[in-house]
Every structure is written in C-alpha cells, then in structure tokens.
Amino acid sequence: MKGQDRSTESAQSPPPSEMAESLLEKLFAKSRQECPEPRKAAVQGHIPTWFQGTLLRNGPGRHAVGDTSYNHWFDGLALLHSFTIKNGEVFYRSKFLRSDTYNSNIEANRIVVSEFGTMAYPDPCKNIFAKAISYLSNIIPEFTDNCLINIMKCGEDYYATTEINFIRKIDPLTLDTLEKVDYTKYVAVNIATSHPHYDKEGNVFNVGTSIADKGKTKYIIFKIPTSQLEKDKTNSCLKRIEVVCTIPSHSRINPSYYHSFGVSENYIIFIEQPFKLDILKMATAYFRGANWGSCLGFHKDEKTWIHVVDKRTKKPVLSKFYTNALVVFHHVNAYEEDGHLIVDVIAYKDSSLYDMFYLANLKKDFDASSNFASTPICQRFVIPLQHDKNAEVGVNLVRLPLVTAKAVKEKEGVVYCIPEVLCEGIELPRINYDYNGKKYSYIYAAGVQWRPVPTEIVKFNIHTGEKLRWTEEHCWPAEPFFVPSPNATEEDEGLVLSTVVTSDPTKAPFLLMLDGKTFTEVARASVEADMHLDLHGIFIPEKVASTANT
Ligand SMILES: CC1=C(/C=C/C(C)=C/C=C/C(C)=C/C=O)C(C)(C)CCC1
Ligand SMILES: [Fe+2]
After folding, report:
1. Which residue's CA is minimally distant from atom 14 of ligand 1?
2. I need a surface site. Which of 106, 154, 283, 525 has the fewest CB within 10 A?
3. Which GO terms describe its biological process (predicted)?
C-alpha cells in the first residue's frame, strides 16, 4: 500500500507485524553483496527531464568477516552506492570501499581492525608486539580508515568520510577507492566530523579535535579552500587547509564528542556537549579489551557550551552561551535575524542512541512500546548576539516576536539558553542546502516512531507545524535528500530523494523521488540488488557527473 499522510502530528499507527527480532537483524546486520556493474532500474512514474546526475551514498554494508562479527551497526564495512539518473533512466551500482581496513580484514578472513563498537587485534601472524609497542608510544592510537558515514566534495574530488583523521578519496562514477588521506598531515586534528559545510564558492568548512597536542586539547575549525588556479588542479585541496579558529576544550582529557556543527552567513556554531571522549580510557582501551564506544560518556550534570565564532574576525564572540546537558548529533540549520542567531538541532536528553545501535540490542524484541533510546527532539536555540549590555541579571535577552526560546542573562558575559521545541520524532534532517545559513521553512527528515528504525520520511513546515509524510508497508526509507529544480523560486521546489530498502522479499529496493512541495510520489526506480540501509550522501548534478554509467 502506497501512502502519504497530511496529518499535522505523529499519528502512531500500530507497528508492522514484521517488527520482530529477525527483521531488525536482517535490516542492520546482514552482509550485503556489492553490485559493481551498473544495473538498470525499473522506473515507475515520470522523472523530470531536468533531474540528471548521480546520488552517491555511504553506509555500513557488512558486519561479519569469516567467523567474526562486529558488535555495532556503525562498525560495518563501508559500502558505497549510487543511482545515476540520465534522460529518465536510472542505473544503480555499489562497491565496498577498499579501505586498508577492508583489505586487512579480507586478507586475514577475520576482523583485525578496531571500529567504534568492536576492539580487534591484529592477525597473530603479524607482529602483535610491534603493534602493542607502537600503540603504547602514542596516546592516540592508529584509527580505522573504514570511512562509512558520508561523502565530502572538495573541489573536483570526492571523499568517503568517517569521524576520525582518515578520509578516502573515491571515484564518484566507478565507486573505486583511491588514496587514503590523513588530515593530520595538513591540520592537527585526530577527529573531524563527517558533516562538513560548504559556502557558495564550494569551499569546505569542518571542525576537528586536536587531542593532547603539546599538552593542550582544542577544537579546530578549518577551511579547505577549493577554488584553485588551473596550474594547481592536480594538487589536493587539502594541502591548502587554513585554520579559521581554535577553541580550547573545557577539559584536556575529556574533550566533547560531536557529530556535526552549524553555520549561518557570518557565524560558525560549535556545540561542546557533555557527551565526551575519555582520553585516558582510549589510551588503555587496547589492553583492556574495551571498544572506543566505551570511552564515550555522558555527564548529565555538566553544561553544554554553545560556541559562536564570527567568520569575519575568526574569533569567538565575547559572551558565553550555555544550556543544560544534552546530546546533539545533527544540526539542522542556523541563521541570523535582527541581532539574534537561530540554531536548530536534533537533540536528545542523553546518549542512549549510540547504545541502541549495538547489534545485540537490535536483536532484542522490539515494538512500539520498547523504544531503546530517548526521543529525538527538534529544538531551536536563539542566541542574542546584540543585546543590551546594561540588561539586568535574570532578564530574557531574546527580543524576537513569536519566539518562546529564551536566553537569560546569568551574569556579565554569561547567558543561559532555553530552547523551544519545534517538533519531535525526526532524525537525519536535511534542508534545501541553498538555504543553509539563511532563514528557511522546511526540514526533510526520517520519521522515527520506534527508535531506531525510520519508518517514514517527513516534510516539516517550521512555521505552521504541518508534517507531510511518506510511508509504505515493508519499506525502510533512508535520510531524505533535497535537490532543487533549476531556477526554483521557492524553497520547496524540487525533488526529495530517499533510498528505500524493503523487508518484503518479493519487493525490490528503490530510489524514491517525491515532489518537494506536495510530498507526493513523482517516480521510483526499483533495482534488483542487495541494497543496504545507508547513512548519508550527496547529489552530483549532471554538469559535474559524466555519463560513464550508461
Ligand atoms: C572509530 C572511532 C570513533 C568512531 C565513531 C563513529 C564511526 C561514529 C558514527 C556515528 C554515526 C554514524 C552517527 C549517526 O548519526 C570515535 C568515537 C569518533 C573515536 C574513536 C574511534
Ligand atoms: Fe550523521
């Protein structure tokens, strides 16, 4: 049954009968087969002629090697997949990222490289003592290059990314794996997000953490300039990384963990939340047989600092802004309005989301009543950038009409922010990226009624609170991606894409194309392939992507 629902609040239909143990295991833990040659999809509906290019996505696709298995969904070996759309036809392909991690595991026929939730030990044939000694001599161990989270565009180059210092260049058309790049060669970060931002010239901005470097732990906001002279075209953009600003960590051995950050036209927003890495635990993890995930801890009684960096001065603004302890994975958008900075995020009251994705938890009985993690809440913070310096302590400094978020002056230079709730139950938010950093109206996201599995995709109108939904039986949609139509004059003029896996063996997975305005189905391209649940990705319009697939 196809379906689309215009109700304004989360009408919770009963869980599908298949929400049983085996289903979640099958959806998350099943090892997938790659489909390296382009495979033509069966198109239903009519794909608009302007819509040409390649949707490129990344996510974990294999959780077992030989007799060994990973413990966590985020550990799986990166499987890249793409849909190339040309003249109304769609071609699919997928390839495992041939990372060093992938190759070592396959060669040893077991998992030999540690991931987020799995600590692994090298092949006993190799010199384990050499590994242990090299480990001991570094506070920060050598991390995996299994870049499974997202795709980053740097000028003409594309990289598969994860959250640590390695990124892997890929060929966006063949999905072949190219060089391994180590951020630390260009900027001193041991960790960097897989959610960079881009300005209108295509320059990349990202945030990373430099751990215990010369005794200091700090967050580094950096820019990868991508516009290059013709003669420089063969050089990697990464060689020209510039540090925009550094922010000292509140704690040297407990830097914050973060998954994304926000940008408005003039500011960069970095949330230093009390979900933190414990560096001492990380340094001893290998010998304790503990995984990286166990080195993360949520400190519920600590503050969450909202750092605001002015892009023009490359300095943090003078006031300090904070809120209560929370956990944010995804920023939605940020923009400036009448001397205030609006910051929209998906926040949780704790870090239970990461525990939920241990595959052992996904095997448990699961239904609507047994949500394993706290609810994702779309929250809006309003930061008063230009407030009356003479305001009295205890005064709400927010001066915008129709806003319930507060920012209370606590003392000189310190402001306590209380967010307003925009809506609940959405994750993996995307927007029309042309509106990134600007006032906007729509959020496209996965609707998560039973955490963790998205059962629907949603278009949320921030101003009216209206939610449009797409959902279909036995279908598990991924993060939606908005592609604006050429010369669009309205924010929601375009297509919303989602890769959908199915749990009905008679129904092939498909690329779903919805009309951005009405959220009705425009077309779907079903493909007989072993598609996986993916995480994030990008769309490369035809002017960039060549026609190699066809
Ligand atoms: C390996 C490794 C890490 C990996 C984290 C990963 C892989 C996180 C994935 C998060 C996702 C997919 C979130 C989605 O919302 C850390 C903890 C950064 C640091 C230690 C080493
Ligand atoms: Fe993410």
Report:
1. 329
2. 106
3. carotene catabolic process; retinal metabolic process
Task: Report the amino acid identity of residue 462.
Answer: I
Asked if 213 and 188 touch (Cβ cutoff 8 Å), the reply is yes
Q: How many CA atoms lie within 13 A of 511 on its CB side?
A: 29
> At residue 15, does pLDDT exceed 50?
no
Pocket test for ligand 1, best of 116, 282, 532 (most atoms within 8 A of CB): 116
Q: Which residues are annotated as a binding site for Fe cation?
A: 195, 259, 330, 536
Residue nearest to atom 5 of ligand 1 (CA): 116
- The DSSP bridge pattern shows strands 510-515 and 521-526 to be antiparallel
Q: In this structure, how many other beta carbons lie within 10 angstroms of the beta carbon of residue 22?
A: 10
Report CA(208)–ligand 1 centroid distance (Å).
13
Give the distance (Å) from ligand 1 centre to CA of residue 34.
23
**Sign of torsion over alpha carbons 391, 394, 398, 399:** negative
Q: Residues 486, 460: contact at Cβ < 8 Å?
A: no
In whole angstroms, give the CA distance from residue 63 to residue 69: 6
User: What would the pLDDT profile of 279-305 be if each residue is shown by its tens digit?
Assistant: 999 988 888 889 999 999 999 999 999
Does the predicted interface ipTM exceed a cut of 0.85? yes
Cβ–Cβ contacts within 10 Å for residue 279, how many?
20
Is the model's pTM score more than 0.90?
Answer: yes
**Dist. CA 354 → ligand 2 center (Å):** 12
